[in-house]
Design goal:
single chain, about 500 residues, Alkaline Phosphatase, subunit A, 8-stranded mixed beta sheet
Length: about 500
């Protein structure tokens, strides 16, 4: 780009040369060099200034001093803007170049013509013309590091989540449920906007700062909803605050708003039990109907629980197990308190995890098992049919279209997920890990790397993925490969063109 800019803006080059000439003339054409005398106090003063400068630079680059911070990126500009289009005013060119220089760009895909592509797969979700929108409250709970492996309801052993198991028993749940990423920062866009992790963490990518997205917040606001995001970590953690503001959330409640150091876990933020109780207090102040997302944090390394709960929960076989038990108990108290609130019966709860964590069993260490998390929907009113669906696949990016579909949302929008209540749509899941795309449909999973299929497995019957059926899957394998490529093409091309809003 440099040579092109040099030719296009040649007049600025002449201006720079002229300014340098003026500087030389102003300071004197002859520069006299003087050999400084060594002074011990000056030496140590300059060393101190150097070390302090390095520390200040690191703090500035990371965006703070705590363990919860990370190097700031383009999307952090959203914290100081009302609209995505204003982010360029906050950003500067050197910072943008530095943060994106090493990132791999998405490349435009041309597997199919536009007409063929939209016939095979489109992320545009069209409303049911006969549906009447029901203005129920929506609460999405994302549980930190809650792999499906830790539950009893999805396995043939007791597990560490007695309350969650009981709640699953009276919810709409799915035997086969998956994450679209492997880090907390991937779960937020997946669960809020229906955009999965592909290649780069979306919140940290340049596409987050320049693309316009559908989300629960901006889709429901015209319907009169108030919206809030709640996370017990300090407010700058992982760029969530900035990203949520960019998506149109009205309010953010975090560590700062909780404002009680005595409940700090010493590492990440406020313990789940007090923060979940605080979340209900804040929901009571929201205008109904409301959409609220709550993200827990206690089931995380270094895997501690509050001192009063030492030896209270089963320590199991892995360090995370007692933390899972603690958060499960915190959820029990959360729902006990929520039941007493007037908005409870008119609320849909969507409960999922951000990703898995420590694993004990071989079936949860495979490429499929590593993505296996609980996802279920709880409707206290009983209007939603209850029970575990033994065949339907669900993923985090399905939460947005499924909840809105159930409520009869009457506007088109874009989500790369599906409405799980619409049986006419393919029973698919899509995720990306280790430079490999995985496309699930019914009981099969197809793996694609560098445009080449490398695996085809019956993941329900071959839980350890020992038998690669590549080339033996017949028409099903061919159809899945075509749909996977169509999904990749839609994702890449729409992301590159900022085409993520329904026309």
């Amino acid at each position: 780009m440099f040579s092109g800019f040099a030719a296009q803006y040649w007049s600025y080059g002449i201006l720079v040369i002229a300014l340098v000439a003026v500087l030389i003339k102003g300071y004197g054409a002859e520069l006299k060099l003087h050999k400084p005398r060594f002074k011990i106090y000056s030496f140590f003063t300059q060393i101190g200034i150097f070390v302090a400068s390095i520390l200040l630079i690191i703090i500035a680059i990371r965006g703070g001093m705590g363990m919860y911070t990370r190097p700031i990126t383009l999307s952090n500009a959203g914290q100081y803007c009302e609209k995505p289009s204003e982010m360029a005013l906050v950003l500067n060119t050197p910072f943008s170049i530095i943060r994106t220089f090493s990132l791999k760009d998405l490349d435009k895909k041309t597997y199919f013509s536009d007409a063929e592509l939209n016939e095979i797969y489109t992320p545009v979700i069209l409303p049911n013309k006969n549906a009447v929108f029901k203005k129920k409250n929506i609460v999405v709970l994302i549980l930190e590091s809650f792999g499906k492996e830790y539950t009893g309801a999805f396995n043939d052993y007791e597990g560490y989540t007695p309350f969650l198991d009981s709640l699953i028993g009276v919810s709409t749940s799915f035997r086969y449920s998956f994450a679209n990423g492997s880090k907390s920062i991937d779960a937020i866009p997946s669960s809020i906007t229906g955009v999965p992790y592909v290649q780069d963490h979306f919140i940290l990518s340049k596409y987050a700062s320049r693309n316009h997205l559908n989300s629960f917040a901006n889709l429901l606001k015209p319907k009169g909803y108030s919206t809030a995001f709640m996370h017990g970590a300090p407010n700058g953690s992982m760029g969530f605050w900035a990203f949520c503001k960019q998506l149109g959330f009205d309010q953010y409640f975090g560590y700062n708003e909780f404002n009680d150091e005595s409940e700090f876990d010493g590492t990440w933020g406020i313990w789940d039990e007090p923060f979940l109780s605080f979340s209900i207090d804040k929901m009571n102040g929201l205008k109904q109907p409301f959409y609220n997302l709550i993200f827990t944090l206690s089931s995380h390394d270094p895997f501690k629980v509050p001192e009063k709960y030492t030896d209270y929960f089963s320590k199991g076989t892995l360090p995370i197990h007692q933390c899972v038990g603690y958060t499960d108990n915190a959820l029990r108290k959360f729902f006990e308190k929520a039941k007493t609130m007037p908005w409870y019966e008119n609320t849909i709860f969507a409960i999922t995890a951000d990703h898995t964590n420590q694993s004990e069993f071989a079936e949860y260490k495979t490429e499929v098992g590593f993505q296996s998390i609980p996802i279920f929907l709880f409707d206290p009113s009983g209007e939603m049919e209850r029970g575990m669906n033994p065949t339907r696949n669900i993923q985090q990016i399905d939460i947005l279209p499924s909840v809105l579909g159930f409520l009869g949302f009457d506007e088109p929008f874009i989500s790369f997920g599906k409405n799980v209540f619409d049986s006419t749509k393919p029973n698919f899941v899509f995720n990306f890990k280790n430079e490999t795309y995985q496309y699930y449909e019914d009981q099969y999973v197809l793996q694609l790397r560098e445009d080449k299929a490398i695996g085809f497995y019956d993941f329900r019957n071959d839980i350890l993925l020992k038998e690669n059926l590549l080339g033996k899957g017949g028409e099903k394998e061919k159809l899945m490969l075509k749909r996977l490529k169509a999904t990749i093409q839609q994702y890449h091309n729409r992301m590159l063109a900022d085409n993520l809003l329904a026309k």
